[in-house]
Amino acid sequence: MISFELDEDVLAVQETVRKFAESELREGMREAETAGGVSDAIVTRYRELGLSTLELPEQHGGLDLGMITKVIVEEELAFGDAGMAAAIDRGGLAAYALLELGTDAQKKQHLTEGQNGTVAFWEPGQRQSLGDPETTVTEDGGGFRINGKKCLVSNAGLVDWYVVFGTVDSSRGWEGVRALLVPKDAPGLTIGEPDEKVGLWALRTATLTLEDVHVPKENLLSGSASVREGAERLMNRVDLVNAARSVGLARAAYEYSVGYAQERQAFGSPIAHHQAVAFMLADMSILVDSARVMLWQAAFLVDKGENARKEVAQALVQANTVTSKITIDAVQVLGGAGFIRDYPVEKWMRDARALSLLSGTDEAQNLLIADAIMAA
Amino acid sequence: MIDLELTDAQQNVRSMLNWFAKTEMRPIALEADRTGVVPLPFLKKTMDLGLAGGAMGDMQAPEEGKPEKKGPKGANRIAVIGSEELAWGDAALILTFPGPGLGGPPVTYTGTPEQKERAFKVFREDRENPHWGAYALTEPGAGSDVANISTTCRKDGDHYILNGRKCYITNGARADWNVVFATLDKTQGRAAHRAFLVFKDAPGFSVGKIEDKLGLRASETAELVLEDCRVHKNDLLGGEERYTSASKEGFRTAMKTFDNTRPLVAAMAVGIARAAYEICRDWVKENYDLKRPIPRYHLIAEKLANMEREIHAARLLCWKAAWMGDLDIPNSREASVSKSYSAEVGQRVTTQAIEIMGYEGTYHHRMVEKLFRDVKVFDIFEGTGQIQRIVISRRILQGLTR
Questions:
Q1: Interchain pair A278, B389: CB under 8 A
Q2: Averaged over B300-313, what is the pLDDT?
């Protein structure tokens, strides 16, 4: 049909989240950055507003508003602060893993009765996302034994359990991949010191080391007939959230630049009236729009139940590309002010790099897109 | 509700036009580009199929026999979908489709019932011969800077006398009539602008040279000369009562046209980009196994992925601007966004396609070099990329839109 119209209930949610993002995230972002994390109080507030579960099915405590609402919410949160948006989301990634890979019992226990987990996506020697882990899983006395290393794990050390992907036989590709729930106190699980990153300091990430970690067989996420398909649906959701945060961050930098350029005078007029600056602002506006329309369409397709792996990857690459450019240009618009910490844009430029790498490199996404192109 | 896929009806339009583009346009595109001649049977076919009118005006033009009726609610969306498909076939040929063309919208939006009847009658009644309308705004000293036009009009009894030169007018020479913009008094700015329906037999109207161009070579681009050109006051678009002393209606006529046609023009650039991308992609498929070994062809994979992504983004921006147009939501920023982004993507994609194909990409028969030439003007006509950015930045500074 082609409609970009938001429903009333989505507009209401957007209004709520906008206020929350502006008052609590934007206001507190430097403090959270310096502290390297967010307070439990803000996590609680985020949950109380119902923002953490609105896209989930009703039977699991959600509002069934779908990924389309989720991406609108995440754009607003990241407009407040992208690092905090990721940091307050202490259950979202794991919720998606449970939703797409878990059994009903696992969903009931961990989704409906409170979320407090994360997913360990990356490995130091990563070749392909999730489908090709070096982490090994061996069956062992009715349970599983896990050995390996996971890096850049979001909210590591702050959650009760982790979803870990490993392989029972690396020669079997996806066939050999297992997804397991690992509780935080499992013997053999070590959580490293928080990473020092280029940006997104408010989001704690760390390396997990798993040495002969044993979990019972009930911890195997076995609700999806195909681990590959479940993992791809999981990645679709996660990538949409990351893309939405990129769009929100881009918009933050864009709007701040517009405001600054209208205030700052040079040669007798606001720099916004100088064509070289005005055109940068126009380009920002064009690019934010281009990323958002792709994001919305990809979310729409995911909500429809379509595979949409390519469209989601495209939305993510567009958002990341656009955000990197806009945040760099924002520093340029502010000039010297862009360089110092009294202004937010230097932070946003660093956050943009961190954000676009946390979702895997754009080059890896492009290979996925190219594979789909060549297979068509 | 957000809904970003096509309905069956929209899909049918797309399929039908894609079929036409593939079977009727592509086969003649290269020769028409070389010779600048469009075969009459092709023009007749566009008329028989009801494509006459061109993607750039027909969709908003009144339905046959019902000059007053406004188009259906989804007209802009159908038009951008259709423009992309037809431009995928051949963008220059679209511009040659008989019909009111860009002249359609100003007549539709601002013409009196009597003027609409006079302008559109010929398309309805003469089904045997191709007829065109055209839009004559640009002058040697006023293109995107519409307000700066120098062609003058002055009242003389029941007539107006027009003097000036118009350039780069698509179908201007073959058109039955041109919508000509002129000023009563250049010092009065936009308020003094007037638009006239100038028929080709008007005394003092003549055609200057036909341009030889970089791209879109099958399309006629003409210079028009108005030397004491005499038109009746009934040819003043909208009638004299439309223009009060403080009114800017004349200028608004021009702008209204742009807001509705920019997404269409943008969608054409998307169609050209897609054509180049697909030719290049198929060429790569024939010549390389991209999957193995990945490191060797990673650069090509990366380029193809980027090309497809940007085309996709551009298309969605066109859809959005068109959707807003259909719902009467002010869309001048979005129209300019779609236009500037699509034109840029078109240039980037056609350049990359040649880069990937190397020498082969420069061969005429591969068509990519033609698309590379054709797409350039999409960053120029209907407002250059720079003008679009001026429009966008002004809108931004008037108040942020999210």
A1: yes
A2: 96
Residue B117 lies inside a defined structural domain of this protein: yes
Last residue of a domain, one of B66, B90, B125: B125
Is residue B84 domain-shared with residue B153, that is, in the same domain? no
Residues on chain B touching A291 (C-beta within 8 angstroms): 313
Q: What is the pLDDT of residues A23-64, one digit of tens each?
A: 999 999 999 999 999 999 999 999 999 999 899 999 888 899
Residues of A in contact with B340 (CB under 8 A): 282, 286
Question: Strands A161-167 and A117-120, how do they pair?
Answer: parallel
Tell me whether residue B40 is in a domain.
Answer: yes
Contact with chain A for residue B118, Cβ under 8 A: no
Judged by CB atoms closer than 8 Å, whether chains meet at A4 and B320 is answered as yes
From A199's Cα to the closest Cα of chain B, the distance in A is 25
Q: Taking 50 as the threshold, does the pLDDT of residue B63 lie above it? A: no
At residue A118 the predicted structure's pLDDT band, cuts being 50, 70 and 90, is: very high
Contact A297 B397 (CB under 8 A): no
* Contact list, A246 vs chain B (CB under 8 Å): none
In a domain, B281, yes or no: yes
The backbone torsions φ and ψ at residue A375, rounded to the nearest 5 degrees and listed phi first, read -80, -20
> If you measure CA to CA, which chain B residue comes closest to A252?
B402
pLDDT at A125: 84
pLDDT tens figures, A258-296: 999 999 999 999 999 999 999 999 999 999 999 999 999
Residue that terminates a domain, selected from B247, B270, B300: B247
B314 with B236, same domain: the answer is: no
CB contact (8 A) between residue B281 and residue A373: yes
Which residue range(s) make up the domain with B265? Answer: 251-398
Tell me the β-bridge partners of A163: A119, A181
Pairing of strands B133-136, B177-183: parallel
| Closest CA of chain B from A209, distance in Å | 30
pLDDT tens column, A197-220: 999 999 999 999 999 999 999 999
Ranking A122-126, A208-212, B59-63 by mean pLDDT, the lowest is B59-63
Please name the residue that has the structure tokens 């300019």.
B336
Check if B177 contacts A (Cβ < 8 Å): no
Contacts of B97 (CB under 8 A, 6+ apart): B43, B46, B51, B52, B53, B54, B55, B58
User: Which CATH number characterizes residue B211's domain?
Assistant: 2.40.110.10
Whether B274 and B195 share a structural domain = no
Residues in chain A closer than 8 A to B291 (CB atoms): 371, 374
Number of domains in chain B: 3
**HSE-CB for B250 with a 13 A CA cutoff:** 31
User: For A68, which of B2, B302, B310 is closest by C-beta distance?
Assistant: B2
Q: Are residues B168 and B151 in the same domain?
A: yes
Question: Taking a contact as any Cβ pair under 8 Å apart, which residues of chain B between 61 and 90 contact chain A?
Answer: 74, 77
* Residue in the block written with tokens 């007209």: B75
Q: Are B264 and B375 members of one domain? A: yes
pLDDT given for residue B68 in this prediction: 40
Residue B1 located in a structural domain: no
Nearest-5° Cα angle at B211, B205 to B213: 155
* pLDDT score of A17: 97
Please indicate, yes or no, whether residues B151 and B273 belong to a single structural domain of this protein: no
Length of chain A in residues, anyone? 376
Strands (E), A104-160: 117-120, 136-140, 143-154
Query: Which of B4, B74, B400 is nearest residue A296 as measured by Cβ atoms?
Result: B4
What are the structural domains, with CATH classification, of chain A? 8-97 (1.10.540.10), 116-219 (2.40.110.10), 227-375 (1.20.140.10)
User: Of all residues in chain A, what percent carry a pLDDT higher than 70?
Assistant: 99
Q: In A, which residues are within 8 Å of B327 by CB distance?
A: 5
Length of chain B: 402
Active site residue B68: no
Strand partners, A166: A178
The CA distances from residue B248 to A249, B179, B252, B325, in Å, are 40, 17, 6, 21
